[in-house]
Amino acid sequence: MVVAVVVVVILEDVDVEVAVGVGVVVALVVVAALVERRNQLRSLLMTLTKNWIVTMLKLCKHEILAAELY
């Protein structure tokens, strides 16, 4: 949850969908970390989460840059 809060605070002007999505992904990571027997699932979720967060940050960056151009 700290990561989600930090991302939202840094970006400040994010859509509700993005904030909710980040919260859901963080919750999935926490659940995966609690499941110790399922290392492959945890690894897959971590990879998907990392890729999703990078994609969302890129989208937010493009939206911010586009807003500054207009």
Mind sketching the topology for me?
Elements: H1 2-11, H2 16-34, H3 39-69
Gist of the model:
Keywords: Membrane, Transmembrane, Transmembrane helix. By secondary structure, the chain is mostly helical. It has one domain (2-69).
Structural description of this entry:
The chain is mainly alpha-helical. The chain has one domain (2-69). The protein has helices at residues 2-11, 16-34, 39-69. Helix 1 (2-11) packs antiparallel against helix 2 and helix 2 (16-34) packs antiparallel against helix 3. The longest helix is centred in the C-terminal third of the chain and has 31 residues, at 39-69. It is elongated and about 50 Å long. The chain starts with a helix and ends with a helix.
Key features of this structure:
86% helix; membrane; single chain; mainly alpha; transmembrane helix; elongated; 70 residues; transmembrane
Poorly predicted runs are none
Supply the number of structural domains: 1
General shape: elongated
Nearest-angstrom radius of gyration? 14 Å
Overall residue-averaged pLDDT value:
70
The number of helices is 3
Helix content: over 70%
- Strand elements, count: 0
Percent of sequence in beta strands: under 5%
Quaternary class: single chain
What order do the SSEs take from the amino end to the carboxyl end, as H and E? HHH
Sheet bearing the most strands, described? Answer: none
- SS-derived structural category: mainly alpha
Distance between the termini: 33 Å
